[in-house]
Amino acid sequence: MPTLAAIREQRLSARLTVLRQGARAVAAAVPGGEVWLFGSLARGDWDAYSDVDLLAIAPNQQQADALADALLDARLGDDVLALSQERWQQLKQGEDPYWRAIGRDALRLDPP
């Protein structure tokens, strides 16, 4: 009989597989686009009520907004934040502990 930890790991793995496949497909339409998972799923401390938090990163804000809309349309994320690459770098290296934690824990779903 599988342990609870093993069942959680299997569910997380299956969910990440679906998210990665969808993120790659959506991000491919935006040159330089990146999709990052953050929050409880990325940290591994999710529960049955956890939502899917995504960052839509692109070379400029207009492209990031389009990527975020596409991710929402594809129903890949519940909360999707759109950031230019420059702004993403500023936030994750800045002084705000919230954004520094996101930068540390975020998991890229569409690696090159």
How would you describe this structure to a colleague?
There is one protein chain. The chain is of the alpha+beta class and 112 residues long. 52% of the residues lie in helices and 17% in strands. The protein has helices at residues 4-27, 40-43, 61-73, 85-92, 97-105, and strands at residues 34-38, 53-58, 79-84, 107-108. Strands 3-2-1-4 form a four-stranded mixed beta sheet, with helices on both faces. Helix 3 (61-73) links the parallel strand 2 (53-58) and strand 3 (79-84).
What is this entry, summarized?
By secondary structure, the protein is of the alpha+beta class.
Overall geometry comes to globular
Radius of gyration: 14 Å
Oligomer: single chain
Helix content: 40-55%
Strand arrangement in the largest pleated sheet: 3-2-1-4
Low-confidence stretches: none
Average of the residue pLDDT scores: 91
Tell me the fraction of residues in β-strands, as a range.
15-25%
Structural features:
5 helices; alpha+beta; 4 strands
Topology summary:
Blueprint: H1 4-27, E1 34-38, H2 40-43, E2 53-58, H3 61-73, E3 79-84, H4 85-92, H5 97-105, E4 107-108
Parallel strand pairs: 2-3
Antiparallel strand pairs: 1-2, 1-4
